[in-house]
């Protein structure tokens, strides 16, 4: 896989792969979010909603990537201090709340997946998640990038097989539901909301932007990140459309559709693949926090002690496990809704206004772009 080591891959594909890897497990992997934010607004309305999300991601990622390149800020503390000044802490609050919710979600999901597939106790899955995330974060950003890159190829392969089987069995259902052209009011707003709160995952990829050398590369990489992140969601949404509208009432829509296919092997492979994405998501979120702490040490001319890295990782994972015990489904739903507006106010809006102004001002001083 020489391509993965190439500059082209690292500039144009790696940031998007990391973003997609972090978004999917904390987000649309179970299909529940795709139903809530997209499919509830009709089969065609749902697909149009994903287009809205992709366009928002493309614009914000392009602006963020260029801001990070111009000002050489590759952790969220440094980036948002440069963007918001003392107000940067408002973003951090939103990020930490989102991380707490997501870690709780993936801890619960990890326990459930191994329990459903192999009949193992809930905590076997949780412990497996702890070990996987811990090893990745402790080995640093390079190990995370490598794992996320290879696992994404596995993910796309499984999703492709999933969709091929669905089209072969239920292709007429998908075509009929799309041809009906059902579009419910609100699909665009929910496309925006979905994009806004998932932008909270961007700090996980900032470390991968150091290879960008000019504005053209930043913009292309930002657009590619949006496409790479939304592609699996569109594939899965098409799968859910095969059983629309019945699938909208399923607790775990993905499992509902897999059950309709009737292949235990595919169900097992899909769930194992999803387990891998849970590790990706946890590692991405926690590594961003480690990078933020590391930036403080660098300012003081010191290296981040391994004990601090390990302690931070374990502490955050344990917090996620504790949150998972409460089963706060309602709180999670309300939390996502509240955080949506937080990321809009303290990230999306500032980066496309203040951020672009500061980039322009910096360029106007004769700095290289």
Based on CA atoms alone, the radius of gyration comes out at 20 Å
Helix content: over 70%
**Total domain modules:** 1
Coarse shape = globular
Low-pLDDT sequence parts? none
- What's the count of strands? 0
Q: Hey, roughly how much beta strand do the residues contain?
A: under 5%
Mean pLDDT: 88
Give me the strand/helix succession: HHHHHHHHHHHHHH
- The rounded distance between the terminal residues' Cα atoms is 32 Å
- How many helices? The count is 14
Oligomer category:
single chain
Main β-sheet: number of strands, strand sense, barrel status?
A: none
User: Which structural category do the helix and sheet elements fall into?
Assistant: mainly alpha
Query: Architecture in CATH?
Result: Orthogonal Bundle
Q: Looking at this structure, what is the CATH superfamily? A: Hydantoin permease
- CATH top-level class: Mainly Alpha
Q: Please name the CATH topology.
A: Hydantoin permease
Keywords summarizing the entry:
369 residues; mainly alpha; Hydantoin permease; 14 helices; 79% helix
Structure description:
This protein has helices at 7-12, 14-26, 32-37, 43-71, 76-84, 88-118, 122-139, 141-180, 187-198, 215-241, 253-261, 264-299, 306-326, 329-364. The chain has 369 residues and is mainly alpha-helical. α5 runs antiparallel to α6 (88-118). The radius of gyration is 20 Å and the shape is globular. The model has no long low-confidence stretch (mean pLDDT 88).
């Amino acid at each position: 896989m020489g391509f993965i080591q190439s500059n082209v891959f690292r500039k144009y594909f790696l940031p998007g792969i990391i973003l997609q890897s972090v978004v999917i497990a904390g987000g649309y992997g179970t299909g529940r979010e795709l139903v809530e934010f997209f499919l509830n607004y009709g089969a065609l309305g749902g697909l149009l909603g994903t287009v809205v999300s992709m366009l928002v991601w493309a614009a914000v990622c392009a602006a963020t990537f260029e801001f990070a390149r111009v000002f050489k800020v590759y952790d969220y503390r440094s980036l948002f201090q440069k963007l918001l000044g003392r107000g940067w802490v408002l973003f951090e609050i939103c990020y930490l709340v989102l991380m707490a919710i997501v870690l709780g979600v993936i801890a619960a999901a990890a326990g459930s997946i191994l329990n459903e597939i192999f009949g193992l106790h809930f905590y076997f899955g949780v412990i497996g998640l702890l070990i996987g995330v811990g090893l990745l974060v402790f080995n640093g950003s390079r190990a995370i990038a490598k794992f996320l890159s290879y696992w994404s190829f596995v993910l796309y392969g499984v999703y492709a097989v999933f969709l091929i089987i669905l089209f072969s069995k239920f292709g007429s259902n998908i075509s009929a539901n799309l041809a009906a052209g059902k579009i419910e009011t609100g699909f665009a707003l929910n496309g925006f909301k979905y994009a806004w709160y998932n932008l909270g995952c961007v700090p996980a990829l900032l470390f991968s932007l150091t290879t960008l050398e000019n504005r053209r590369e930043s913009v292309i990489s930002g657009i590619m990140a949006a496409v790479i992140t939304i592609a699996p969601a569109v594939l899965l949404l098409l799968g859910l459309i095969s059983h629309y509208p019945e699938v909208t009432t399923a607790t775990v829509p993905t499992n509902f559709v897999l059950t309709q296919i009737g292949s235990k092997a595919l169900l097992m492979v899909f769930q194992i693949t999803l387990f891998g994405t849970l590790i990706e998501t946890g590692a991405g979120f926690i590594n961003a926090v480690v990078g933020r702490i590391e930036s403080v040490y660098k300012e003081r001319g010191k290296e981040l002690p391994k004990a601090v890295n390990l302690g931070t990782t374990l502490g955050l994972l344990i917090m996620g496990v504790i949150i998972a015990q409460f089963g706060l489904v309602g709180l999670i739903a309300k939390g996502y809704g509240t955080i949506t507006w937080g990321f809009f106010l303290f990230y999306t809006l500032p980066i496309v206004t203040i951020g672009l102004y500061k980039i322009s001002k910096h360029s106007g001083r004769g700095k290289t772009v």
